[in-house]
Specification:
41% of the residues lie in helices and 19% in strands. The chain is of the alpha+beta class and 249 residues long. The strands form two sheets. Strands 3, 4, 5, 6, 7, 8 and 9 form a seven-stranded antiparallel beta sheet that branches. A two-stranded antiparallel sheet has the order 1-2. Helix 1 (2-20) packs across helix 2 (31-48). The longest helix is centred in the middle third of the chain and has 26 residues, at 80-105. Mean pLDDT is 82; it is low at 1-22 and 243-249.
């Protein structure tokens, strides 16, 4: 049903464009004309989401026309490695441009987080690691300490520096302590605590959800977590061959 709705929508748009007759001095007299216009529009929309706000029309059209479906050739007679490198460098430019924009928009989050952490590290009992992570132990447990690839059972509450709760659990929840499975602040902090420990984490944005944030968490947000490490379930680091096999699949 959803596919039908999309098709009908395109057909209606095409009919509308045909009835208009022209768009920026381009004649749209047939269904194919209007569909081609839509393809260009969709391409522009897709790249606009990645930060492309202008293009060289002549270069774009030349590149489009240079494609040969039979030869599957690369543009500008580039080798695959050169082509990949060119597009990678352009992607980095777009990413840096977007990051600069985000830093300007969310500068108050950065400033508030830095001010909070600078004051917080002077408090008694607060320990600051080399990465900038801060933590304090409320009550220390006597069990084993987790390692990477173990599973931890925890109760936690996550708040912003103004005290607003953005996430919490009342019952223990099991979480795998694996790279990229949890925010870096947790990956660094949890192995420091013995089973049964209650602690408080103060996590700068770059060890939390970073420059882009997460659902319900704005970009560049410093986070606070009250955690209780209820249980450690020992795991095993995957063999290199197993990791390669999963990657290849």
């Amino acid at each position: 049903m959803k596919i039908c709705i999309k098709v009908i929508g395109i057909a209606c748009l095409s009919a509308s464009l045909i009835s208009c007759g022209n768009k920026d001095n381009v004649k749209l007299e047939t269904l194919e004309d209007s569909a081609n216009f839509c393809l260009g529009f969709q391409t522009a929309a897709m790249w606009a989401q990645r930060g492309v706000d202008s293009i060289n029309n002549d270069a774009f059209v030349a590149g489009f026309n240079a494609f040969n479906i039979d030869e599957q050739n690369l543009p500008l007679e580039l080798e695959q490695e050169q082509y990949s490198d060119l597009m990678q460098r352009y992607a980095e430019i777009l990413e840096q441009r977007e990051l600069t924009k985000m830093k300007t928009e969310f500068a108050p989050n950065i400033e508030a987080g830095e001010k909070f952490l600078a004051e917080n590290k002077e408090k008694a009992g607060v320990i600051t690691t080399a990465s900038g992570l801060q933590y304090e132990i409320i009550s220390e447990g006597k069990g084993v300490k987790p390692s990477l690839y173990d599973t931890i059972s925890v109760i936690y509450k996550g708040t912003f520096i103004d005290g607003t709760v953005f996430d919490s659990t009342m019952e223990p929840i099991k979480l795998p302590l694996i790279p990229n499975g949890l925010i870096q602040g947790w990956i660094e902090a949890l192995p420091l605590f013995a089973e049964g420990t209650k602690a408080k984490l103060y996590i700068p944005y770059y060890l939390a959800y970073g420059e882009y944030g997460n659902q319900g968490v704005q970009p560049f947000s410093t986070l606070i977590f009250d955690i209780e490490l209820v249980k450690v379930i020992k795991g095993k680091a995957p063999e290199t061959s197993d990791m390669m096999s999963k990657f290849q699949k």
